[in-house]
Amino acid sequence: MLKLYAMQSSGNCYKVRLLLAKLGLPFTLVDVDLLRGENRTPEFLMKNPEGRVPLLELPGGRFLAESGAILAYLAEGSPLLPDERFARAEVLRWMFFEQHSHEPAIAAARFWLKLVRGGRELRTHDVDRWQEEGYAALGVMERHLARRPFFVDGRLTIADIALYAHTHVAEEGEFDLTGFPAVRGWLARVAAAPGHVGMDWRPDASLGSDTGAGDATLVNAS
Amino acid sequence: MLKLYAMQSSGNCYKVRLLLAKLGLPFTLVDVDLLRGENRTPEFLMKNPEGRVPLLELPGGRFLAESGAILAYLAEGSPLLPDERFARAEVLRWMFFEQHSHEPAIAAARFWLKLVRGGRELRTHDVDRWQEEGYAALGVMERHLARRPFFVDGRLTIADIALYAHTHVAEEGEFDLTGFPAVRGWLARVAAAPGHVGMDWRPDASLGSDTGAGDATLVNAS
Fold first, then answer.
1. Could you say which of 3.30.70.1230, 3.40.30.10, 1.20.1250.20, 3.40.50.720 is the CATH number of the domain covering B2-78+200-207?
2. What is the ipTM of this complex?
3. Residue of A86, A99, A125 lying closest to B100 (CB–CB)
4. What whole-number distance in Å separates Cα of residue B81 and Cα of residue A60?
5. Which residues pair with B27 in a beta bridge?
6. Interface touch B69/A90, C-beta < 8 Å
7. Interface of chain A against chain B, CB under 8 Å?
8. Interface test with A, best of B86, B96, B163 (most A CBs within 10 A)
9. CA distance A172 to B22
């Protein structure tokens, strides 16, 4: 069975749970709480020297890191990753946008301002940058979605899953989505699609426990 | 014929030129100088509303943005992007790492400290962060390459091309590679591979001109 090492409150980890739920793939969830340093134990660093989650363990014992790579691996052959060469490239285009220009601002703001106790004081110099870069990313999404129901090909793909995960909780990072009606409409369409599960969803097979807040020193969710 | 909109001194644009050269694909190069704001003209924003380069125009008139997506699109079916599902996912894993954890530090440092006149003063608060995040990324690469000739599958792939582009000029962003012997060995192997071209290489079909330094306000190479 697939095994997913993840933190419940991480948007990058939620992407993978959401996709696994949609695909109906059974998996074991192993909680790794970054806020308690559980990603820095020798045991976990043997699995992923970078100390990041999500991390997917395949039945043969191989490990795959990076949420975007995990999504692409799992979605292969499903309708959520188009076969057609250009559409497939456009899916990746939005997934790279998410990891380069969206997540580093929108997810980091939520992590430090909402999840980490005392995070605002620790990262006070970054708040303006997160706001500027995060709103720029939301503007790119708004323009693109103004004339489209989903990011690529008129249908739900892993590009939407990747971008939904942090956008739907952007307000927890103090982003106001009022001025982004196309983004809000798209969020509702993603949430209404078949097989959708929320961020708190867990599979039947779960190991370990997870907490919502703690005293962290590092962002290690990728 | 393929058309590539690019800035000669951008590492993200170099990735695409290097891959096109290796694949022997003819293309027209159109210079877009970010340092002169040529990516902010109405004409260019019609092509890519984000105003970023590289941007690939396909013969039918469709556009593809994001260097990673362009690499994956062009390398499809070639030995530079494995067919096997797990190896392909590992290639993406390193390409996402590059765009999320490597380029935002190592390329940004080079851009502001080397290419933009007065950039150090404009971005003085970011220098420590670039150094910390950039050396962390180099550390991840060093550990991985200590036992491997290339990033994935023992052979050159687009993951190497993606990571080579900014790493081989990391010293221009004031990173010292002395303590990273495995990275230096890998840089030499990539440069020695068949069909390699340097950052200054241009195809026969080029339009426009490009300069090395100017007064920019935005990093827009993705």
1. 3.40.30.10
2. 0.93
3. A99
4. 23
5. B2
6. yes
7. 49-50, 58, 62, 64-70, 72-73, 76, 85-86, 88-90, 92-93, 95-97, 99-101, 103-104, 125, 140, 143-144, 222
8. B96
9. 45
